[in-house]
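From the pipeline queue, job 12 of 40. The input is one protein chain; the requested action is below.

Action: predict structure.
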Amino acid sequence: MTSNNDFFLLLNFLFYFNPRLISFCKNHFSSSLELINNLHLLPFEKKTAANKPDILQKKIQSFCITSYHKLLHSHQIKVCYIEDKEYPMMLKEIDDPPPLFFYKGNIELANFKQLSVVGPRKPSDYAIQATQHIIVPILEHFIITSGLASGIDSCAHQTSIDYGFPTIAVIGTGLLHYYPSCNMSLQNKIADSGLLISEFPPNCKSLPFHFPFRNRIVAGLATGVLISEASKKSGSLITANLALDYYREVYAIPGNIFNSNTEGSHRLLKDGAKMVTSAHDILEDFPDLQKVNPTSPNSIIKNNLSTNLTSTEEAFLSIFSDQPISLDSICNESNLSIQEILQFLSLFELKGYLKELPGKSYILTI
C-alpha cells in the first residue's frame, strides 16, 4: 500500500467514526507500516477493546487494498477525497468534514446550492403536505438534500424525482446497504439521477450512532436547512443546531399547537429560526437565485414544475406576477366563474405557485 489515497482508504476502514483521528493519522504517518509501529500514540478519547493496538494491527493486516478497489469498481462506487477539486466547498467549511466519502451518481451536484430538508420518520399528513407545498417551487433554484430515512426525508427526495429534478441523499450506512429496506428503489433512483453519499465503508451496516453522525454532512452541504416537523426530542433538532453552528440559515414550518410532534419546531421558531409558509419565504433570502421570469407560467412548465397544466390553468397563471393582484382584478381578467377561480387559487397555493397576501391579493411565488 503505497499511494496516499490507498492509505486514506485504510484509515477510513479503521476509523470512519472519527474524522479527526483520520486527519491526525494522515498528518503524522505515511504508510500502514508506520501506523502499525505507532499505534500506541493514537489519541483516542476513550480506550476500548476495539482500539487496543493488537486488535488494530490485526485489522490493518487483514485489509487488502486490491480487493477493496475491486469491490468499489464492481459496484460503481467512487471516492471523493478532501483534496479533490470536486469536494464540496460548503462541506469543507465545517469543523470536522469527512476526509473522504464514497458516492454514486453525479458528484458535480455536491457544489450546487442546496436546501436540506429534514423531519420525522412518521410525519403527520400536514407535514408531508406542507413540505411538498414549500419545496416544489424551490426545485429549480436548489438541490434538495436529505438523509433518505423514511418519512419526510423520503418525501423530499421523491418529490424532487417526481418533478424531474436531481436530489442528494446522505445515508447512514455503507453504499452497499439499504436502510430502511423499503427505500431500495428510491436509493437506486437517486444514484442514477442524482447523488448518493456516505462516509461509511461500503459494507458498513447501520448502527444507531451513524444517523446523528451523518447529520453534520446533511447540514454542512446546504445553504439552509428546512425543518418540516420536530418534537422536542427530535433528531431533526440535531441537524438544526449543527446548521446554526455552521452559520447556515434555519427554517421551520409552523405546526398544530395541540400536536406534541411540533414542539421542537416551535422552539426553533422562538429561538430565531425563520418561519416558512411558502417557498417565497426561503427564496427571498436568495434574490440572486430567482432568475425565472415570474410573469411567465411557461417557465414553470419548461422546468417540469408541473407537467399536467391544462390550457385553462396556464391562462389563469398568466394573470399573476411578482406584483400583488386583488381578487377583484383576478375576476375581471379571467373568464372563469368565481367558483373556478377560488378552486384554482387553492390549487396553486397548495402547489406553492401563488401566495395570498393580506386583503385577498395574490402574487406568483416562483
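Job complete. Residues 11 and 22 are 6 Å apart (CA to CA).
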